[in-house]
Amino acid sequence: MTSLTFLNLSSNEFGLMPDWLGKLTSLTFLDLSKSMYLFNNQLSGSIPDSIEQLSKLESIDLSDNQLNGRIPNSIGKLSNLETLLVDDNSLEGVISEAHFANLSKLTKLNIGVNNLNCEMKSDWRPPFHLKYIFMESCKFGIGFPEWL
């Protein structure tokens, strides 16, 4: 299955995040949402660090699941990523510049309705130009980021 480029497993009930996802290195589209699309799949557990192995990935939709833990810094290595949707989960921890380091193609970002702390320097300039951003319930440290 390493040549698979499109995977839509939305509206399933997987339980834990599948370990084998990191082996799909040709994947450009992942929907595990209701619609990776891994949306509304009742996925639980954390997003694995091995997500960085999906270097061709352009779209991730993990929204409306039961994911917990942190968003791994390795997500910032997905330089082809255009869409990142992880809203409506139980993710926690810090979101920093490292999460976005190489995401110059990112145009759509939804990290809302989690328990995330956004800790970016006020003068940081992201490598992307977003058309859509949703950050409901995100906590911002000392100041609101100027790039927003």
Walk me through what this model shows.
With 148 residues, this protein is an all-beta fold. It has strands at residues 6-8, 29-31, 44-45, 59-61, 66-69, 83-85, 90-95, 108-110, 115-118, 132-134, 139-140. The strands form two sheets. It has a six-stranded parallel beta sheet, with no helix packed on it. A five-stranded parallel beta sheet has the order 3-5-7-9-11, with no helix packed on it.
Question: Concise description?
Answer:
The protein is mainly beta and 148 residues long. It has strands at residues 6-8, 29-31, 44-45, 59-61, 66-69, 83-85, 90-95, 108-110, 115-118, 132-134, 139-140.
Any descriptors?
single chain; 148 residues; mainly beta; 6-stranded parallel β-sheet; globular
Unreliable stretches: none
Structural class: mainly beta
Mean pLDDT: 83
Tell me roughly what share of residues is in helical segments.
under 10%
C-alpha Rg, in Å?
14 Å
The helix/strand order is EEEEEEEEEEE
Beta content comes to 15-25%
Instruction: Tell me the strand order in the biggest sheet.
Output: 1-2-4-6-8-10
Report the biggest beta sheet as strand number plus sense, adding barrel if it closes.
6 strands, parallel
How many extended strands? 11
State the end-to-end distance: 40 Å
Q: Tell me the overall shape.
A: globular
The number of helical runs is 0
Topology of this structure?
Elements: E1 6-8, E2 29-31, E3 44-45, E4 59-61, E5 66-69, E6 83-85, E7 90-95, E8 108-110, E9 115-118, E10 132-134, E11 139-140
Parallel strand pairs: 1-2, 2-4, 3-5, 4-6, 5-7, 6-8, 7-9, 8-10, 9-11
